[in-house]
Amino acid sequence: VKMVHNGIEYGIMQLIAESYDLLKCGLHLSDDELHEVYKKWDGGDLNSYLIEITADIFCQPDDKSSRRLIDVILDEALQKGTGMWTSQDAMNLRVPTPTIDTAVAMRNMSALQTERDKASQRLSGPTVRVNVNLDGLKPHLERALYAAMIITYAQGFAQLRRASQVYKYSLDLEAVARIWRGGCIIRAAVLEDIRDAFAAAPDLANLLLDPVIGQAVGDRLLDVRAVVETAVALGLPVPGLMSALAYYDSYRRDWLPANLIQAQRDYFGAHSYARIDEPGAFHTEWE
Fold first, then answer.
1. Which of 75, 86, 189, 234 could form a disulfide with 47 if both were Cys (CB 3.0 to 4.6 A apart)?
2. How far, in whole angstroms, is CA 212 from its chain's centroid?
């Protein structure tokens, strides 16, 4: 449970970092303005420990210069491995946790400081000016961040559920949500809704299937799409938001193009495939 807690923590921190990137490099907000944005967000749906401390961080002065401390901290995020463990275990359990996986990958990307310095001089971003509605970005971003955070929780709780089944843990997911709500790094107001979801349906397969949580995310999907579209147009990476959106869009579909992958596997490796019209494993002698 602690390991998955840390994996969710990685995912949410990455999502917040992406919102910071958009506000700083997209809207060119000052540190004071960034403080006000996150302080306001902490008073609404995004109320959480991580949003609270994010607001505080932008006010902290550097005791070695006249700048804010945030502006002299090297952009290389270190890690102790707990996020990676979460991803590795999720893959062993065959549970998709793409936002957590992406958060680990982006910490690895941030560590490529020397390579990124060279790449920034050689690789270009968008060269054609596009019409981007930056005025509406902040409210879209607040709602998008909330939806993506819930989706990250959904991934983590799905992993806990599968782990409980496979490893015979008999986890009480309502209790997990209650404990996390009480005092930890990922404590957030939304954990009350998550607790209610598992109280109503202890064997809930995925938080997105809860009517209240599913609607909360669904009502904000247009905001997620708008923010992702804006980020792509600006050339600003938002892989956490993208992965959360892709998770939602994949989970809500009753058909995915995996049948082509199965055909390819059978073609080059005779791995067989299942059919939609009769049970069993089948192999074709492809010409």
1. 189
2. 20
What average pLDDT does the segment 161-189 reach?
96
| 183 contacts: CB under 8 Å, gap ≥ 6 | none
Domains (ranges, CATH) in the chain?
A: 2-251 (1.10.1040.10), 259-287 (1.20.5.320)
What confidence category does residue 179 fall into, taking pLDDT thresholds of 50, 70 and 90? Answer: very high
Catalytic residue IDs? 2, 9
Q: Is the pLDDT of residue 86 over 90?
A: yes
pLDDT at 133 over 80: no
The DSSP result for the chain, as a single string, is -HHHHHHHHHHHHHHHHHHHHIIIIIS---HHHHHHHHHHHHTTTT-BHHHHHHHHHTTPBPTTSSSBGGGGS-S-----SHHHHHHHHHHHHT---HHHHHHHHHHHHHT-HHHHHHHHHH-----S------TTHHHHHHHHHHHHHHHHHHHHHHHHHHHHHHHT----HHHHHHHHHHSSTT-BTHHHHHHHHHHH-TT-S-GGGSHHHHHHHHTTHHHHHHHHHHHHHHT---HHHHHHHHHHHHHT-S--THHHHHHHHHHHH---B--SSS-S-B-----
Q: For residue 204, give Cα distances in angstroms to 49, 56, 87, 134.
A: 26, 36, 22, 39
pTM of the model: 0.96
